[in-house]
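Hi R.,

Here's the chain you asked about this morning:
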Amino acid sequence: MIRIALLWLINALAVYSTAHLLGGIHVRNFGAAVVVALVLGFINAVLKPVMIFLSIPFIIVTLGLFLLVINALMLQLSAVLVDGFSVDGFWWAVAGSLVISIISWTLSSLLTL
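And the predicted structure, written out as tokens:
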């Protein structure tokens, strides 16, 4: 349980940091980033596997690059669902999903989770 809460906070920190690093992603405050991390985690657990299954041919043809599109769509969906979080466009969502993934991975590996 503590591990899940720590991963949630790491993802919230990644969302908050990404909003400060990229001009096209906006988050009102850290509380909104925590909600975004929760919503994004739920979307990634429920909707992302369905999207991946339905787009297997595209993923194979693009050698996995279509997964960037799926990640960007998941980030944009979380921006629609969470008040206080916005993404200016699709390419900002692609960049944001990459930066969030890199920050989350780095922090998680530093804490050896």
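The mean pLDDT is 95.

Let me know if you need anything else.
M.
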